[in-house]
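Lab manual, section 2.4: Encoding a predicted structure.

Procedure: take the sequence of the chain (196 residues), apply the prediction step described in section 2.3, and record the output as structure tokens. A sample record is shown.
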Amino acid sequence: MSVTATHHEGHGTGREPAAPPTKSRDPEVRLLLTFNPSEINSGTLEVIATPVTVSQEPGCREEVRNLDCGGFDSHPLAELQIRALADRGVELGEAHYWSVQYRDCYSVDLGRAAQMHKTLKTLDAALQRLDTKLGPPEKFTAYLARCAVALHITSFGFHVGDSTGWHDTNTYRWTDASGMVHRIGARLEQWRATGQ
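Recorded output:
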């Protein structure tokens, strides 16, 4: 939280100087990961990273929100997803359809379509630069980490317990890229062993 510094005069007035006003931080964009059985390919698991905003006022619970995708001020990353498909017999990093795409868009006008195109082109160029420097990623977790770097995102989240579908009633745990690699690996290992 940042505080705006102000000079207060209060001498000789008998009043206490007012507390400096506080300013809320802009919500931070993070990637929230979900794991869903594929509706199209039975025996596979979709791993989906979706940008969300997280903000927290002093003394309040953190608020996780989907990015605004409507009106005149839609967020460029609203409805963007970084996805992969896992198969029980194949490691996720082998070749399972990594992609970055806009999904489940409710409405798109010409301005929004141009914004989506620009975001995808910018992200693709950043990923190509990283491939040139580092070589191609060998696993989805490496690809996801590179997408996060290109999007200037440093935090990854996971549901704790069952998801209700509503951010206000869910609990999340946040981690960095190293924690993300561990959590995805552990979740896929559990899924391959138990089918859940």
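Check your result against the sample. The chain has a mean pLDDT of 79.
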